[in-house]
UniProtKB/TrEMBL annotation:
It comes from the Eukaryota. This is Mago nashi-like protein. Keywords: Nucleus. It comes from Tetraselmis chuii. It is found in: Nucleus.
Amino acid sequence: YFPSACPAPDNLPKSCTPHIAPRNHSAEVRRCGDMGDDFYVRYYVGHKGKFGHEFLEFEFRPDGKLRYANNSNYKNDTMIRKEVFVTPAVMNEVKRVIEESEVMKEDDGNWPEPDRIGRQELEVVIGNEHISFATTKIGSLLEVQQSKDAEGLKVFYYLVQDLKCLVFSLVSLHFKIQPIAR
């Protein structure tokens, strides 16, 4: 529901060369001279069920804008959309968390394919590296441990948990804090 701020993997500039050869939709890391020192993150998890298309999506854009959307049609709920600008310190912290997770070294080729249960996507651009993952919804660490690439999927799983926690905190704090009256 957010148009990607980064070129789609098939539409990257010609100066980009694959770092990890993609298999089907598997992880793609591209070295791109044209992307400079940009930083971008997008996460999506969702499924289509009896309540329609339900999903959670957020992105950190290079200009510091955090965009959040949550759509649940359960009991006729409406879509929640929030946008907020975060400080460079927050952007640096998100970047640090991603870099320390070493998710950029992973490959989703042996992860469970998206299916009727749902789909998760993580797209990250750090400088001249661009990675894009797609896998099924993961409900527990047990599902991670039973996959073909348990170690790689565990890196993804814990990073996503950390990012979701940070985003929920940022959005809820921003919209709950009342300005001080003078």
